[in-house]
Amino acid sequence: MRMPTSLPAASLLAASGIATVLVAAAPARAATVEFPQVTSLYHDAMVCGGTIRSWADTGPQWPGRAIINIQALPVTGFDPGEYSFAPQCVAVATVAWRNMDTGAAGEYRVPVLAGFYGSEHYALFQNTGPGHIIVTVYTDMPNIPAHSAFDVPA
């Protein structure tokens, strides 16, 4: 087996270094905006409560659209049975949004099943249109709603 000469090896190393610099210098234009967490009671257990986090992902690769994300953090509560202090509970979480530039409005509503380890990550594209979006996050149980805003690029 023949070893490569120093010139081809050096040119390969230089090309690799240039590619790394170009990729590292490319601006990251996607944005993630975390909304304040919603403290809520849950149902399907004797006593259950916790917090729900939500956020929006936007970027030029999805013009006029945002990905709305919802995830419950670990819940605390009590339910009679084999695992009394590790109940599984449900709350329907809603992210209601309004585009302040166009007047468009919508909501992402999802039943969130949560337990000792929290919940799965729920996400869905919303066709908000470009502009300034205001959101209200709440559940179908007694809760402290959260309000926030983000911008969607054209």
From TrEMBL:
Residues 1-30 form the signal peptide. It comes from the Bacteria. Keywords: Signal. This is Secreted protein. It comes from Nocardia aurantiaca.
